[in-house]
């Protein structure tokens, strides 16, 4: 969606599923290499920790591998928030772009809040509290994301409106990738074909009149053997003709007498 609305040329940007997967594979590949290197070079070990009540439990040791991964995720999430802000006014079918933005904002807010709770409110929490915080964090981020992305579509299907947008878009040659980023967005009401035909006829008549005017101007300006007709564009024989040349700059007038034209 961001690439589509940032394009500065007149042509459409068509993003296929294959192109999107080509962008996603490097992201997953980086994570795979990082986790594999971490596992082979520094296998995680467990340490014994006491909670506030003196109960002992084991937990994996946190080191610079964990901190580096957390910093990378924060930066990646910040980039996602920036992209969502850039497409905040973009239109898309099913309002999907805005719902995805809400999901990313929600993930950032939930994770920031849960980390703050874990560090400042329950710094020495036991395993039960840690699992509870992890459960709440997962439900408020992942489950809410799934509900925001797929909920409106499921609701349309249950209401019997699942194919309403697709059929209209398909009739106008709009592909699925265009539907995602709002290209070819079709209004709810069916277009008035009679009115559209009348508007097209009017535009064609205007273009035909302009072409005829240009033909007459070129013929009389560039051919001195053709005399101006009475009632034509250059029929003022008593005074120099103030002829506006279509090819001249705005405000540039031809002031030669008709005979010289």
From TrEMBL:
<feature type="transmembrane region" description="Helical">
    <location>
        <begin position="102"/>
        <end position="125"/>
    </location>
</feature>
<dbReference type="Pfam" id="PF00003">
    <property type="entry name" value="7tm_3"/>
</dbReference>
<feature type="coiled-coil region">
    <location>
        <begin position="190"/>
        <end position="217"/>
    </location>
</feature>
<dbReference type="InterPro" id="IPR043458">
    <property type="entry name" value="GPR158/179"/>
</dbReference>
<feature type="domain" description="G-protein coupled receptors family 3 profile">
    <location>
        <begin position="7"/>
        <end position="153"/>
    </location>
</feature>
<feature type="transmembrane region" description="Helical">
    <location>
        <begin position="131"/>
        <end position="151"/>
    </location>
</feature>
<keyword id="KW-0175">Coiled coil</keyword>
<keyword id="KW-0812">Transmembrane</keyword>
<dbReference type="InterPro" id="IPR017978">
    <property type="entry name" value="GPCR_3_C"/>
</dbReference>
<keyword id="KW-0675">Receptor</keyword>
<feature type="transmembrane region" description="Helical">
    <location>
        <begin position="20"/>
        <end position="41"/>
    </location>
</feature>
<comment type="similarity">
    <text>Belongs to the G-protein coupled receptor 3 family.</text>
</comment>
<keyword id="KW-0325">Glycoprotein</keyword>
<keyword id="KW-0807">Transducer</keyword>
<keyword id="KW-1133">Transmembrane helix</keyword>
<keyword id="KW-0297">G-protein coupled receptor</keyword>
<dbReference type="GO" id="GO:0005886">
    <property type="term" value="C:plasma membrane"/>
</dbReference>
<feature type="transmembrane region" description="Helical">
    <location>
        <begin position="61"/>
        <end position="81"/>
    </location>
</feature>
<dbReference type="GO" id="GO:0004930">
    <property type="term" value="F:G protein-coupled receptor activity"/>
</dbReference>
<keyword id="KW-0472">Membrane</keyword>
<protein>
    <recommendedName>
        <fullName>G-protein coupled receptors family 3 profile domain-containing protein</fullName>
    </recommendedName>
</protein>
<keyword id="KW-1003">Cell membrane</keyword>
């Amino acid at each position: 969606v961001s690439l589509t609305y940032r394009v500065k040329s007149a042509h459409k940007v068509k993003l296929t599923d294959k192109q999107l997967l080509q962008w996603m594979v490097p992201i997953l590949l980086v994570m795979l290499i990082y986790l594999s290197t971490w596992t082979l070079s520094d296998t995680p070990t467990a340490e014994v920790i006491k909670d506030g009540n003196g109960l002992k439990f084991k937990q994996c040791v946190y080191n610079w591998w964990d901190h580096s991964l957390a910093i990378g995720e924060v930066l990646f999430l910040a980039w996602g928030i920036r992209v969502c802000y850039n497409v905040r006014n973009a239109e898309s079918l099913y309002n999907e772009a805005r719902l995805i933005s809400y999901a990313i904002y929600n993930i950032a807010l939930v994770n920031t809040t849960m980390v703050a709770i874990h560090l400042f409110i329950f710094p020495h929490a036991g395993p039960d509290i840690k699992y509870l915080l992890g459960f709440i964090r997962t439900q408020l981020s992942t489950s809410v994301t799934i509900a925001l992305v797929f909920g409106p579509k499921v609701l349309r299907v249950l209401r019997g409106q699942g194919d309403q947008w697709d059929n209209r878009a398909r009739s106008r040659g709009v592909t699925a990738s265009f539907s995602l980023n709002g290209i070819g967005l079709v209004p709810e009401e069916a277009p008035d074909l009679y009115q559209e035909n009348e508007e097209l006829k009017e535009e064609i008549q205007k273009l035909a009149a302009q072409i005829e005017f240009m033909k007459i101007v070129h013929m009389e300006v560039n051919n001195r053997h053709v005399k101006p007709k009475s009632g034509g564009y250059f029929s003022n024989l008593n005074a120099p003709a103030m002829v506006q040349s279509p090819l001249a700059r705005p405000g540039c007038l031809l002031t030669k007498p008709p005979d010289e034209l």
